[in-house]
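Example protein as discussed:

>
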Amino acid sequence: MEFETLCLHADNNRKDEWGTLSMPVCQSATFVHKGVEVPSDYSYSRLSNPTRRHLEKTVAALEGGADAFAFSSGMTAITVAMMLLKPGDHVIATDDLYGGALRLFNNVCACNGIDFDFTDTSDTEAVKALIKPNTRLFYVETPSNPLMQVTDIREIAGLAHEAGALLYVDNTFLTPYYQKPLSLGADIVLHSGTKYLGGHNDTLAGFVVTKTKELADRILYCSKTIGGQLAPFDAFLIERGIKTLPVRMDRISENARKIAEYLLTEPAVKKVYYVGLEGTKGNGIVKRQAAGFGGMISIEVADADLAKQILARVKVFQYAESLGGVDSLITYPMLQTHADVPKEERDARGINDRFLRISVGIENIKDLTEDLRQAIHGEV
C-alpha cells in the first residue's frame, strides 16, 4: 500500500463481531481468559490493549518498523528507550535537543551512570571524534529543535554500527510521511505523537518504533515493567489524527515555505531557520533523505522588545507551547521549551531573548502572513 492508504488501512486484518469501521475504544483494564493455559491475545491493558495495539501496528507500518509501542507522552517513550542502556555506557547526542530530552539526559540518565557527549551531529567529523570504546548509542534529532540542524542519518548510522552502537532518531518534525530513518540505517525511531501524528493539540502520546524484533522484545520488556502506556481513548484520538496526516503535512509544508520566504523580506528578522530554504545549511541533506521540509521555522529578530511585541500582538498565531497541530503556534523557547537549559548554554546556541519558534498550521496563508506582518510592524 502507498503511504496515504496505510494511514487508513495499515491494520486491515482487524476484525470484531460488530464490523466497526473505526477502531472502538476498548476501555477495559483487564480481559477474561479463554481458559486455563489457553493463550489469549489480551490479558491486562498495561501489557496490551486492542485500541492501542491497532494504533501501534499502524505506526510501525508507516515507519517500516518491526513493531511500535505507544506511550502516554513523548518523554515517556524516550525514557523507556533509554532503559536499554546500562551504567557506564556512553551516548553521543545532538546538542540542539528538545529541552525535555536534555533535562532527562543530564538530570536523570547521567545520575544513573550514563555518560553523555553533546555535539552538532550535522558535523560527522565532530561526531567521529567523540566515539569511545563504551559508546553504545547515538541520539539524533533531525531537523533539531529549535535550531533546525540537519543530520545525515545514513552517515551517522554507519559510524554507530561500526562502533557497535545503536542509532536513535527523533522523527517528530518530519514524520514518516516525509522521512523514514529506519530505511536510512536507524535502529529506533522516536516520536512525540502529541505533535504531527495526532495533529490537533488535544492529547499527549509518544512512540518507540524498532527496526528489529529483537529490539522490539527488549522495549516490550521495559515497557511492561515501567508502565506509562497510552490510554485507549488517547490511542483512538491519535489514530484518528493519523488518517489525515498526509493532507495536513502537505498544507503545513506549503504554508511554511511561503512564510519562511516572507520572513526573509522583513528587515527586522535577522535570521530565518527553515530547512526548506534553498542554500540553507542542511537543505541538500534533507532533499536526499526526506520527501518534504515540514512546518517548523525559527527566527531571530532585531531585539527582545520586538520578540515580545510579536508574541503579544499575534491573533491568528497563538502564543503557546507545543507544535505540529492544525493551529499555528509561536513559542518563546528561552521561557518555555528550553527554560531548564542554563542561560549560558542557551545563549551559546543562539536561543536568546530575540529567538522565536513557529509551528505553522493549515490556516489560509494570507491570514498567517498578514498576522505576522502586523505583529512585526505594530500596526493597529
